[in-house]
Amino acid sequence: MSFEPAPFPVAARRELADSQLRVNLRRATTTIRTKRAAVVSELPDWERLREAGRRIKADAIRHLDEHLERLEESVTRAGGKVHWARDGAEAIEIVARVAREHGSDEVIKVKSLATDEIELNEGLAGRGIRAIETDLAELIIQLANDQSSHILVPAIHRNRAEIRELFRRELGVDELTDEPRELAEVARRYLRSKFLSVPVAVSGANFAVAETGAVGVVESEGNGRMCVTLPRALVSIVGIEKVLPRFRDLEVMLQLLPRSSTGERMNPYTSVWTGVTPGDGPQEFHLVLLDNGRTNVLADPIGRDALHCIRCSACLNVCPVYERTGGHAYRSIYPGPIGAILTPQLRGLEQAPTLPWASSLCGACYEVCPVKIDIPRLLVHLRGRVVREVESQGRPDPEAVAMRAFARILASPRRYRAAQRAGRIGQWPLARRGMIRKLPGPLAGWTAVRDMKPIPRQTFREWWEERR
Amino acid sequence: MSSARDEILARVRAALSDVPADEPAGAEPPRDYETSSPLSGEELTTRFCERVADYRANVFRTEEGAIPVAIRETLAAHGARRVAVPADLPDEWTAEIPEPVVDHPPLSPEDLDGVDGVLTGAALAIAETGTIVLDGGAQQGRRALSLVPDLHICVVRAESIVGSVPEAVEALTPGAQEGRPLTFISGPSATSDIELRRVEGVHGPRRLEVIVVA
Question: How many Cβ atoms from other residues are within 10 Å of residue A363's Cβ?
């Protein structure tokens, strides 16, 4: 189910009205933050790992063409088939073709952001194929016809009582408490027959190694292992930015990712496979290398750092904006700070021009990012691009005009004092209880997202003059 | 028709036109992080056992001659009778299983779903993270074998325990280059998808028993 479009300030205001959501989110983000901090502090070399991670991703992205060609060669040599998809529709068609070849009108799915991004399930449904989500949270989202609100825990906005009602209604289970263990058991029983019988699985991947052709899925529940092991055919849809140059690079990523993501020393299961292994697992493997806007991100030498992201979601959990608005306000499968820099670049700035402002630039996201993406720098860079390329479109932009006037005022003490006196007279109908909440006319944009302190009755300079 | 492949690669190259042509691809990152663990011998085994137990898996320490006893007691504790095994498991181990089910010829997924558990060895283990790694080598069988049954009993030899993730990746590299599938297992399957409450056991084996042989 796709997101109804709305600019971030409008969507955020709507979400902020939901106090239950804020309670759920605060509890959840606090829990993960604390766990992450504990396991990160165990590693004395964390900062060196982050730097190594950053350098590995930077090299992968700066030489993406060479690494992709090498990956294709390695996977092909190992018995896999490599496909290239310019957009979501091409990727969906490849999955549909494989399902048809196996005479199946169902596919089982591992949780994957890339497949959510291209709306694979809806695309397959239009071709008469049902995609069954096997991750517990994704299943909840799918059954509720809802939208993900977090990269790692997509159903973070749903509480146990809602999930119990959903399972009762959709899975026909009558006797059910809201105990998470019991709810997980229901999902296990429902999905087990699917794992054992559906012949085609679809996954994403956390990485694909150019050197050896190894593809990996990092997960917790074991649904990933089921999907990449039991079916006859496996299709992995992987964004082109997921390539890692060498097998050895896993020694860095397998330390950075679980600790940043779930706050564990290691996630329960990581599966790594290379093409096809005779007698073990799917005997048919398709790797779909997906562009879908990534080459546009790549074309911006500063913005391309967003492609270093390993989808851990640590930046969401520390973000004061995300913690209050939740994921839905971002209107994208990629919410939070990383979404604010990734979504506008993937879809085009004109499609999500407000997202680079969905931040206070506090920098917490940069501090926790396991591959050191300087998210605040990218936000500021994208704000500049939005103003230049989208909003002004050649016309002088009111903010720029105002800032130029402001600069002239600040350049002269005489003009500054005159402006203060004039402002004090002009502001009296606007200031309420020590705050200006709404400016008139073209200035309204400034106060739409922030309150302003009025000019005080007496400035420090005036106070000083009086006492001299 | 220009193929999707050619078009994507052309777009990538055009997007990267600012990268100097003589900048080599595949530059090594600085590897000044810890590549080996300060622990050795008995310390490694102890750390591994602690970390596995943190995931709420059961750890049973024993010695070479007592492996059959450990297997017998573990099976009894779970009431497991029909237990799947890879074809190359030592006879002394298999002899402890009331009704061993050998994966040769390969069992169907339904057969595997019908057994009480599975008994395997491991390729290696990582002390720092409490992780067991299977690579389809000796005494491990294929991936489905150690996945579908609800109870996984895994025998880990102390000499196969390495300290850190980098040491494990180094040891696994030759096999990975041959294309061996790898499975990293850290505790039983788990989910925290409902209100971030951790629940052990969803789809993978819900119970993990580790027998560590010193």
Answer: 14
The kind and range of the H/E element at A194 are: helix A180-197
Residue A160 in 3-state DSSP? helix
**Cα separation, A16 vs A22, whole angstroms:** 7
The answer to whether the CB atoms of B7 and A255 lie below 8 A apart is no
Asked if B25 and B102 touch (Cβ cutoff 8 Å), the reply is no
In this predicted structure, what is the pLDDT of residue A394?
A: 65
Taking the C-alpha atoms of residue A196 and residue B149, their distance in angstroms, rounded to an integer, is: 12
Q: Among all residues of chain A, which has the CA nearest to that of B196?
A: A28
Whole-angstrom distance, CA of residue A414 vs CA of residue A409: 8
Q: What are the two backbone dihedrals, phi and then psi, of residue B133, each rounded to the nearest 5 degrees?
A: -120, 130
Residues of A in contact with B142 (CB under 8 A): 279-281
Q: List the structure tokens of A100.
A: 């048809």
Torsion-angle region of A83 (φ positive above 0: left; ψ -120 to 50: alpha; else: beta)? beta
- Is A466 exposed, middle or buried, given 0-12, 13-18 or 19+ CB atoms closer than 10 A? exposed
Contact A206, A310 (CB under 8 A): yes
Number of CB atoms found within 10 A of residue B171's CB: 16
DSSP B105-118: SPPPHHHHHHSSEE
Q: What's the pTM value of the predicted model, to 2 decimals?
A: 0.93
Fold of domain A1-19+305-395: Fumarate Reductase Iron-sulfur Protein; Chain B, domain 2 (1.10.1060)
CA distance B139 to B121: 5
Q: How far is B91 from chain A (nearest CA, A)?
A: 23
Alpha-carbon distance of A234 to A224, in angstroms, equals: 11
Least confident of A26-30, A61-65, A111-115: A26-30
> Nearest 10 degrees: CA dihedral of A31, A34, A36, A42?
-150
**Predicted-assembly ipTM surpassing the 0.85 threshold:** yes
CATH: 1.10.260.40, 3.90.1150.10, 2.60.40.3500, 3.40.50.10420. Which one for A43-292? 3.40.50.10420
Q: Nearest Cβ partner of B16 from A252, A269, A298? A: A298
Residue type (1 letter), A254: L
Q: Indicate the pLDDT class of residue A222, thresholds 50, 70 and 90.
A: very high
